[in-house]
Model the fold of this input.
Amino acid sequence: MVVHSSPLSFQVLFLVLTILLQIESHQIEDVAAKVEHLPGFDGPLPFHLETGYVGLGDTDDDLQVFYYFIKSENDPKNDPLMLWLTGGPGCSSFSGLAYQIGPIKFKIEEYNGSLPNLVLRPQSWTKVSSIIFADLPIGTGFSYAKNVTAHRSHSKLINHTHQFIRKGYLLGNPITTGKESNDQMQYAHGMALISDELYLSLQRNCKGEYIDIDAKNELCLRDMQYYQECLSGIDPSYILDSDCKVDFPMDDQGTHGRLLIQKLEGPLSSYLTVPTVTCQAYCSFLTTQWANSQSVRKALHVREEIGKWKRCYTTDFDFDITSSFEFHVNLSAKGYRSLIFSGDHDLVVPFLSTQAWIRALNYSIFDDWRPWLVNGQVAGFTRTYSNQMTFATVKGGGHTAAEYKPDECLAMFSRWLSNAPL
Done:
């Protein structure tokens, strides 16, 4: 594992972007098809799900964005409507639906070759908001275009998304400056993953630059090699998680890295390579098997011309925006509210990095650093600024905080929506 060159370190502008919309739900319903049953789920769906395509570009045939629209389970006529995008640099937002904040999730059980099972998630954010999970960028999930590679870039993704922006946004563990990897060493030292001596040597020999290292700087390269060896058994997305290793990337699941695997002989394939149940990538594997089932595609009203479902981009993405700092400056100046949250056990985008660029905005503090509570227990720490930006840590959360701390993140989201202090 090479932490400073992890593919997650170059995510799209908004790693986990949610944008509140001021459009009426009937605008979605006009082009959507209702889904009342899903293969793998026992019985009719106890929530309102619609799926469909929205055409973008000069003609409706240019770009076809697939989406899942789930009505609020509380008061859909008055609750806000939220757009969810997933980073990675671009992954299907089914990731957010099934892994983090949607009303269903995969049942974690040994895969036997049959269709994976779905169960309800009690902490769904649809308890307080309607949500559109959009497969953007084009080419992720069930979205498509006649020329997919022409649309794989940061700026094109933002232009497509900008059509929906109206009110405010949330970001979870976001890549913002492109320099977040430079803060990983300080975080690793603070979490006792590396020694005092190695940390001081890294500071002395690398002088704060751990991304673009001079090939002639042998002392820095030596320290970096030792650093990588120390962290080779750590999952950077959640430093408390099990380490999963294998000798090849699982591109079809959108998961790069080394994973523990097992070979399974089953009806869907003569041999399948399956991550072990304890690996985080296991849900990605289940999703790929589920989403490529013809019964699932029929239930979701997926168009026949769509090829194999892939969760994330692995190639052909133009990283033409290196920093989104100025975007935050502009949005704040226009009066957009924002909530920036960080799972504090994420090494990929340490909370230290997020705090640093927020400080650089140079806004005065409105509500100073304090714990925020769920059920009388500290769920994290928070601070609010005069530009209506709230920063919060999620205690014990990983790179995708809601995946690890669903109760706490639902409480955080609900309070922010109601404009109440966390």
